## 1
Amino acid sequence: MDSIRIIGGRPLEGRIRISGAKNAALPLLAAGLLTDRPLMLGNLPRLADIETMLQLLAGHGVEIDLAENGEAGRTAILRTPTLADDTAPYDIVRKMRASILVLGPLLARWHRARVSLPGGCAIGSRPVDLHIDGLRRMGAEIDLADGYVAARAPDGLIGATIRFPSVSVGATENLLMAATLARGQTVLENAAREPEITDLANCLVAMGARIDGIGSDLLTVDGVEALGAAEHHVLPDRIECATYAAAVAVTGGAVDLAGGRLDLIEATAGVLLDAGVGLEQHGDDLRVWRNGASLKGVDVTTQPYPGFPTDMQAQIMSLMTTAEGAAAITETIFENRFMHVQELRRMGADILVKGSTALVRGVPRLSGAPVMATDLRASVSLVLAGLGAEGETRVNRIYHLDRGYERLEAKLAACGAEIERVPE
Ligand code: UD1
C-alpha cells in the first residue's frame, strides 16, 4: 500500500483550491435514485468514496455520465429509469458506511430495499437504529437478518412525525430523502443541520420536493408524486478547508484557500483565531496565515453543527501538540475517536486521555516517525503533525486519506511542503 513521506518544517505559501464536499456529494448522488429524470451534479470531488457510491448506484441501475471539469471537479449526470437490483451488497457497503443513504430513496421510490449493515471508519459502534426507527414510523416493514436490513413498504411510505432522540447527520438525510416521495406530511424534529444537509435539501427542492425549515433542526416535508430533473453544484468541503487552515497554523506561512468559506467553518475558525492564527475572507478566497507568533492551547468540545465538528478533532489535536500551555479536547459524538493519540505520542506529543477527553500539553516540537492511522481524519492529523515535525515522517496505510482528500500531497507540495506519495 502507498505511503506518504514528509520532511517537516517548511512553511506553506500559495493557493489551494478547495474541492466539493464529500459529505454533501454522497447523499446528493443517492438522491439520483429518487427520480427517472436526469440529475446533474457538478463540483464532485475526485475521491475513493465517490467512486464507491457510483459503483453502488450503478448496481441499482443508475446510468451515469461523468465529465472532467478541471478545477471545478467532475460533473455527473445520473438517470435512473428502472431499478436493476434492490440490494446494496456487503462488498460495497463495508467499504463505506454512507452506503446506508440508498435505503431511504430506494424504499421511497420502489417500496423495497435490501442494504447490508455498514462498516466504514473504525470510530465506534456507529449503529443505524435511528435510520431504521424513522423509516418504520413511516410505515416500512424492516427485518434485520444475515447482516442485511431488509425493508418493504408495500403501499409506499407514509408521512410521520419523527423526533430524533439524538442528532444524526445520516439519519436526517435518509429520512429527508424518503419523505420527499411519502404520502402526506413528514416532520423531522431535532434534525441535524450540517451545511451538507442544507445542500441536499436545496437540491431536492430544485427537483420539485416541498421542504420547509431548511437550515434549521425542524424540517417539514410535504410528499409529492414524483421528483423531476435538476442541476446542482456541490458546496465546497468545509472539512477539507478547515484541515488546510489547520495545516497553515501548524507550519506557519500564508495560504489562500480558493472556494473556502469562513461562514461554513465558524467554530473551527474561532479556535484557530484564539490559538493565534489569522483568517480573513477575501471574496471567494479564505486567507489563512501565521507569521512567527507561537500558538496558544485552546480547549475544544465536539458538537453537532454549528458546534465544533468531530471531523476536525484529530487535526486540532495535532495542532495543539506544539501550542503553548495545555488544551483539553473532548469528543462527544463518537466513542473511540482518539486513535491518532497513540501515533502522535510516538512523535513526541504529550497527551493524556481520560474517558472522552484528551489533555494535550504543548511540547516545543514533534519529531518525525513512521506512523499509521485507521480512519480518515486521524490519518490527515498525522500528515499535519509530520508537516510541523523535525525530520522525516512516513504515514502508512493512506487509503483512508484517498477516501476524503483529493490530491492531498499535490495540493500541499504546490505550497512548498516537502511531501510525496511513495508507491509500494
Ligand atoms: C456523518 C459524516 C461524518 C461525521 C458525522 C458526524 C457523512 C458521509 N459522514 O456521519 O463524517 O463524522 O456525520 O458529524 O456525512 N448514531 C446512532 N444511531 C444511528 C445513527 C447514528 O446511534 O442510527 C450515532 C453515531 O454512532 C454517532 C452519532 O450518532 O455517535 C452521530 O452520527 P451521525 O451524525 O449519524 O454520523 P454519520 O451520518 O454516520
## 2
Amino acid sequence: MNVKSITLNNHIKMPEVGYGVFRVEDGPELERAVQTAIKLGYRSIDTAAIYGNEESVGKGINKAIEAGIVSREELFVTSKVWNNGLSYDETIAAYEESLEKMGLDYLDLYLIHWPGKEKYMESWKALESLYKEGRIKAIGVSNFQVHHLEHLLEEAEITPVVNQIEFHPKLIQTEVRDFCQKHNIQVEAWSPLMNAELLSNETIKGIAQSHGKSPAQVILRWDLQQGVITIPKSMTESRIQENISIYDFELTSEQMDQLDALNEGLRSGPDPDEFDF
Ligand code: NDP
C-alpha cells in the first residue's frame, strides 16, 4: 500500500497517514508492531518522550531497515519534547536523549508536545537551532491553540511545519484549522478515532456500510479528503492494515458534511488551555 505524502512549508514531504503508538508499553510486542506497520506500507511513525516507548520504536525501525524492507531516508519519524518548562539546554538534551533511545542519528520531525502556560518559547528556540544545524528535518508543535500560535509566530524565526491536535468528527477545531491554513501550518490529527469511541457511531457506521468499508476507514478517509494528516494507533495487525487501506473509495461531499455535523467540540484529552504540567 503506497501512502501519499503532503509537502510541508519547508518543502519536506510527510506521509498523510502514519502509525501512532501512544499508551503502548515499551517491549518486544511494540517492536514487532512497528516492523509490521512498516512491512504493510507505513512510512511515518509518531512517538513521544513521555510515551516511554522510544526504545522499542527505534528497535522496530532499525530491524526493518536491517531487513532491507525500507531505508532510513524513506521513513518519517516523529517524537515530541515533554515541554514542562524546559530551558534551551534541557530541550537540546531531551532531543539527544530521544535519538539515543531510538538508536537514530536524526528525527524527521520534533514537536513541542504541549504549550503549557507560556513555557514553550525557550524550547522553540532550541528546536530552531537543531533545525538550522541540520540535526533535524522539520520542527513543529502540538496542542497549540490560536493564541499560542500567534505568540509563537511573533517571536519565532521559523514557522512550525505542523500543529498536531486532537481532531475527529466530534472535535473539528475550526478556529485552529483556519489559522493554520492561513499560515501554511499543516494540521495533523491525534486520536483520529477518538480512541475507538467513534467506531460505534450510527452515522459513521451507516456511511461505512454504504462503501463496504469500516467506520475507522471512513473517519481516516474524511481526514485525508480535507488535507489533514492522520496517525491512527493499533496493535492489531488486521487493523494496522485496514487503517491504510483507504485509497480505494471516496466520501461524497454530502457524507463529508454529515461527518462534520457530528462536531460537538468534544475532547477526549485535556484542554490545552487548562493543561499545565
Ligand atoms: P486512536 O484514535 O488512534 O484510537 C486507537 C484505538 O482504536 C485503539 O484502542 C485501537 O485498538 C483502536 N483501533 C485502531 N484502529 C482500529 C480499527 N480499524 N478498528 C477498530 N478499532 C481500531 O487513539 P490514540 O489516542 O492512540 O491516537 C493516535 C495517535 O495520536 C497516538 O498513538 C499518538 O501517536 C498520537 N497522540 C498524540 C497526542 C498529543 O498530545 N500530541 C495525544 C494523543 C495521541 P487496538 O490497538 O487494540 O487495535
